[in-house]
């Protein structure tokens, strides 16, 4: 039974990871950009709850006023497209993103 | 030391010492709180500098890109960081803090400072720094200092009181010497007058002369009585002390007889209720002084043509007059030497002082029940 449960959790994790690769990393490329974005969000919003909320709100309705990136960057590359993911998937992806790249998980 | 001197010294010393103590306590308390404030201020400044160190390290750490990031640690202090919602991010503190309400506080001999941070390096909105509290040990020093100051104050105040009382003491001494000399000079003439009056053959005198002689005798007896009082006081109550078994009933009768002429002059009637053979062990002269003083006061202050009740029982003697009486305030001061409430009557205000001294010597209880314009009842109980 325990073995089955462990296998199930591993399966879910791999599934989520592959989903994250598919929905996020495909377009955003390497980890470096993700690190930079997380640093900026952390610097501005501090707590996990506020960071996740800010990312979600931006991805649902990308506006230059909501963007964490500098205005020069927005002017040059423009605003990204609105996410096509449903709310639940988007929230799950944000959770994985926070888990992988937040400072809290790195500190020792 | 005269009778009121000890009391004056106690009062002055008490007042001086209590005011000095109050001043010392106020000063030292203020100093103690000032030092405590200063200590808190210093602690805050140190903790602020620690918080700045943490901030600097966090800003550097924020720019690092490693998979694992080491939280800054310091030898002198410990720290923790909290996000904007006051959730703990990382801590090296000895214990977890449940509230982040106060900017500065001490707990379990440790000082804490909560310093807000912006921008939020590593997500930290609050830096908490903790150090060992520097103990404030001035309290015991202050107590020692207060004891020394109080000791010095007691010594100086003692000298001060002596300095203040010196002129009063000299005046009292001068007065005592004057009374002593006067008393000494009174003895011979009084004895001469009384002896000569007693030897006058009254059968050769007409009624008018007899009345005059009677008045002279009464006046001489009053002076003699006063003389006896003064001698008693001047010899510092140490007149030949011979405690013997006395028949008080006889003595009271004798003293009533002694004052009979004086009472007659004011048409005062003695109502005697004297139990036979009441005995008491004491010095005869002192007992006479005691009874004489109460009796002479009763005669002096009672109204004309009134009655004086004298009751002697096994355990008590009471003398009650129908005189002008005394107020409550007067009764409180009655035993003060040289104090006279009625200046129209003769005397030095020694009577009750002597009464008190003798009753104390023989463990007698004295009750004075007096009402203005009704009379005074003095009861001695033993």
Describe the structure.
With about 110 residues, chain A is mostly helical. Chain A is about 70% helix and about 0% strand. Chain A has one domain (about 1-100). Chain A has five helices and no strands. The longest helix of chain A has 27 residues, at about 1-30. Chain A is globular and about 40 Å long. Chain B has two domains: about 5-135, no CATH class; about 235-380, Heat Shock Protein 90 (2-Layer Sandwich), CATH 3.30.565.10. In chain B, a hairpin with a 2-residue loop joins strand 3 (about 105) and strand 4. The longest helix of chain B has about 60 residues, at about 140-200. The radius of gyration of chain B is 42 Å and the shape is rod-shaped. In chain B, the strands form three sheets. Chain B has a five-stranded antiparallel beta sheet with strand order 2-1-5-4-3, covered by helices on one side. Chain B has a five-stranded mixed beta sheet with strand order 7-9-10-12-11, covered by helices on one side. A two-stranded antiparallel sheet of chain B has the order 6-8. Chain B has helices spanning about 5-60, 140-200, 205-235, 250-260, 260-265, 285-300, 330, 350-360, and strands at about 80, 90, 105, 110-115, 125-130, 245, 270-275, 280-285, 305-310, 315-320, 365-370, 375-380. Chain B is built from eight helices and twelve strands. Chain B has about 375 residues and is of the alpha+beta class. In chain B, helix 1 (about 5-60) packs antiparallel against helix 2. The interface between A and B is medium-sized, with 19 and 22 residues.
Label this structure with key terms:
heterodimer; A: 108 residues; mainly alpha; 5 helices; 71% helix; globular; B: 382 residues; alpha+beta; Heat Shock Protein 90; 2 domains; five-stranded antiparallel β-sheet; 52% helix
């Amino acid at each position: 039974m325990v073995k089955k449960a462990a296998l199930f959790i591993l399966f879910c994790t791999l599934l989520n990871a592959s989903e994250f690769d598919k929905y996020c990393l495909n377009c955003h490329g390497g980890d470096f950009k993700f690190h930079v974005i997380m640093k900026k969000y952390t610097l501005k919003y501090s707590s996990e709850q506020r960071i996740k909320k800010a990312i979600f709100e931006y991805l649902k309705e990308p506006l230059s006023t909501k963007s964490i990136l500098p205005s020069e960057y927005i002017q040059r590359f423009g605003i990204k497209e609105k996410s096509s993911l449903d709310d639940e998937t988007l929230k799950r992806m944000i959770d994985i993103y926070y888990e992988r790249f937040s400072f809290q998980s790195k500190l020792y | 030391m005269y009778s009121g001197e000890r009391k004056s010294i106690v009062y002055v010393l008490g007042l001086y010492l209590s005011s000095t103590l109050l001043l010392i306590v106020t000063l030292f308390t203020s100093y103690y709180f000032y030092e405590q404030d200063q200590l808190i201020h210093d602690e805050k400044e140190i903790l602020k500098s620690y918080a700045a160190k943490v901030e600097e390290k966090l800003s550097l750490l924020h720019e690092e890109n490693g998979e694992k990031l080491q939280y800054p640690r310091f030898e002198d202090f410990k720290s923790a960081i909290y996000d904007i919602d006051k959730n703990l991010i990382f801590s090296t503190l000895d214990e977890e803090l449940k509230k982040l309400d106060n900017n500065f506080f001490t707990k379990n001999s440790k000082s804490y400072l909560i310093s807000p941070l912006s921008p939020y390096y590593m997500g930290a909105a609050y830096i908490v720094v903790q150090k060992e509290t520097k103990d404030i040990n001035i309290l015991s020093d202050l107590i020692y200092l207060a004891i020394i100051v109080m000791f010095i104050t007691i010594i100086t105040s003692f000298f001060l009181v002596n300095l203040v009382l010196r002129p009063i003491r000299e005046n009292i001494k001068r007065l005592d010497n004057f009374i002593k000399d006067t008393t000494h000079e009174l003895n011979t003439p009084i004895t001469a007058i009384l002896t000569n009056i007693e030897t006058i053959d009254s059968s050769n005198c007409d009624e008018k002369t007899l009345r005059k002689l009677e008045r002279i005798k009464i006046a001489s007896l009053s002076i003699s009585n006063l003389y006896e009082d003064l001698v008693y006081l001047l010899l510092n109550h140490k007149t030949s002390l011979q405690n013997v078994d006395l028949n008080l009933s006889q003595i009271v009768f004798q003293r009533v007889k002694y004052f009979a002429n004086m009472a007659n002059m004011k048409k005062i009637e003695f109502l005697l209720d004297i139990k036979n053979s009441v005995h008491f062990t004491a010095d005869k002269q002192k007992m006479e002084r005691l009874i004489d003083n109460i009796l002479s006061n009763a005669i002096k202050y009672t109204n004309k043509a009134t009655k004086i009740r004298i009751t002697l029982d096994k355990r008590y003697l009471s003398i009650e007059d129908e005189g002008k009486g005394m107020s409550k305030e007067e009764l409180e001061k009655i035993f003060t030497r040289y104090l006279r409430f009625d200046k129209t009557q003769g005397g030095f205000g020694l009577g009750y002082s002597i009464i008190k001294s003798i009753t104390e010597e023989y463990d007698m209880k004295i009750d004075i029940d007096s009402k203005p314009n009704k009379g005074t009842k003095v009861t001695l109980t033993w």
